[in-house]
Design goal:
The protein is mostly helical and about 150 residues long. It is built from 7 helices and no strands. It has helices spanning about 10-20, 30-45, 55-60, 65, 80-90, 95-105, 110-130.
């Protein structure tokens, strides 16, 4: 292994030390090796982690839902893409309050899916508001006259 010196802010080191004290990691070195491997494995498709017991550490430290990138992972609400389709259908029909009610009843406030659905709904609202405005009147350029 290669030794490398890295400087961290004191609060970061204190948090890492508390994870070691709690038994999440055997040592600060294990934390640093795992962290680097984890980021590289998420960033580079072909990267294979080299930390000893990497899979066991990952399973213990990072919840399964967070490891499934792009997956719904939520059993407490409807599938997200079904919700997107339903909110879209309501929005296209101008039933914005029905779409809001759906989001409010299916998701808890602050849920990442609820936030995205509300953003999508806002885009449809803005489009509808733009379509309701009368088109800007086209005006011919005024003839210019020169006086001397």
């Amino acid at each position: 292994m290669v030794k490398s010196t890295v400087r961290f802010p004191e609060p970061v080191v204190e948090e890492i030390e508390s994870l070691v004290e709690e038994g999440q990691f055997e040592s600060k070195s294990e934390f640093y090796r795992f962290s680097a491997d984890y980021v590289l494995s998420r960033t580079l498709d072909e990267y294979e982690p080299e930390t000893i017991d990497y899979d066991a550490i990952e399973a213990e430290v990072i919840p399964a839902e967070e490891r499934e990138l792009g997956g719904d992972g939520d059993d407490d609400g409807p599938p997200f893409f079904d919700s997107v389709a339903f909110v879209r259908k309501l929005a296209l029909r101008g039933k914005f309050s029905d779409a809001e009610d759906f989001i409010d009843h299916q998701y808890v406030p602050g849920d990442r899916h609820a936030v995205l659905l509300e953003e999508i709904l806002q885009l449809y609202r803005e489009d509808a508001a733009t379509e309701d405005r009368p088109p800007a009147p086209e005006h011919d350029p005024e003839p210019t006259t020169r006086s001397r």
